[in-house]
Amino acid sequence: MRDVKRLSIQDRLGLNVFELDKEAHITVDNELCRDCQLKPCLHSCPAKLYEFEEEVHFNYEGCLECGTCFIVCHQMGNKGVNWSYPRGGFGVYYRYG
Ligand code: SF4
Ligand code: SF4
C-alpha cells in the first residue's frame, strides 16, 4: 500500500502560488471598523490576513479569494470591507485541492 503523507492546512496553503497585483483588491475602512463591536474578520479569514493592533490591519497578499471576510463583515460587522476579485491574471493559483 502506498504511504500517503497527510499535509497540514499550513502546508497545503504553502503550495499555492500568488500573482501579486500592486493594486489591493480588498480594502478596509478603519472609520467603520472603529465602531464594529464583533470584528468577525479577525477570526474568520482562513489565511489569517486580518490583525488588530490599535486598529484593524489587513494585508491582501496571500488572499484565497474565498469571500468569507466580505460575508461576515457585511452580515455581522460594520460593512468596512470593500471586496472584489483581483484583476485578470492576478491572485491565487491553487495547486493542491
Ligand atoms: S468586520 Fe468589517 S467593519 Fe468589522 S472590523 Fe472587520 S473589516 Fe472592520
Ligand atoms: S477573501 Fe478569504 S482569504 Fe481573502 S482576505 Fe477575505 S477571508 Fe481572507
Overall description:
- By secondary structure, this protein is an alpha+beta fold.
- The protein has a domain at 24-85: Alpha-Beta Plaits (2-Layer Sandwich), CATH 3.30.70.20.
- Helix content is 24%, strand content 21%.
- It is built from 4 helices and 6 strands, in the order H-E-E-H-H-E-E-H-E-E.
- The protein has helices at residues 9-13, 30-34, 41-44, 68-76; strands at 17-19, 26-28, 50-53, 55-58, 81-83, 91-93.
- The chain has a two-stranded antiparallel ribbon. The chain has a two-stranded antiparallel sheet with strand order 2-5. It has a two-stranded antiparallel sheet with strand order 3-4.
- The longest helix is centred in the C-terminal third of the chain and has 9 residues, at 68-76.
- The protein is globular.
- The chain starts with 8 loop residues before the first helix and ends with a strand.
- The model has no long low-confidence stretch (mean pLDDT 92).
- One iron/sulfur cluster is lined by residues 26, 45-47, 49, 63-69.
**Which percent range fits the helix content?**
10-25%
CATH domain class name of the domain at 24-85: Alpha Beta
- Ends: how far apart? 22 Å
Structural classification: alpha+beta
Give helix and strand order, one letter per element, not per position. Answer: HEEHHEEHEE
Which architecture name of the domain at 24-85 does CATH use?
2-Layer Sandwich
List the total number of helices: 4
